[in-house]
Amino acid sequence: MQRTAAGLSAGAKTPEIRASEAELIDRARSRDEAALREIMQANNRRLYRLARGILRSDSEAEDVVQETYVRAFTHLDGFRGESGLSTWLSRIAINEALGRARSARPHVELGAVPEEALEAQIIKFPVSPAGDPERTMAQREIQRVVERAIDELPDVFRMVFVARVMEGMNIEETADLLGVKPETVKTRLHRARNMLRENVEKEIGPVMMDAFPFAGWRCERLTEAVLKRLGIER
Length: 234
Prior knowledge:
The chain is built from 11 helices and no strands. It has helices at 5-9, 15-29, 33-55, 58-74, 85-104, 137-151, 155-166, 171-178, 182-196, 198-204, 216-229. The longest helix has 23 residues, at 33-55.
């Protein structure tokens, strides 16, 4: 069974997995196009969602993902393997997104929770009329509600929600990624769920994992853009 780059970076690693990831990274250091593509396609969605969770902008999130790969692939010699490749890339993306967010909104920090945020409430959101040809009308409407509701969460709660619920990261991985204690992850996720309201969460549950899609032409376009910036063209 073929292992993906994301799979190589998740959870406890066997010697076989560590060797496979090391081989993939070595190939990427040599600008092997297949290896670079495998890494990007395995991590595109996670990096995009994490960046968007901070910036709440599709275009800025895409820019962050592209910049993350360029920085990572030109500094692969600095990757020491203390954490998985996916976690390393995620940290680069988060730092890049936070830097942009601080430029637009000074004092943005994921470790600090404004006191007023603890009582924040989610209001009813209008359905966006914008269409998505890859979804049915009903799915599009629910998806827009999901994305808008998540965008309205305070920063620290939104990042935990994206990591834990949308990306399926475990508590320890989320805590390590965001630089907080596991207990903090649990508390913030609980508050995030409360803010989304129980009735809304039940309604959107079946399509939660499809929010903020990053596949198909968008995934391919970003992959091609990174390869071009690295001087690797077909």
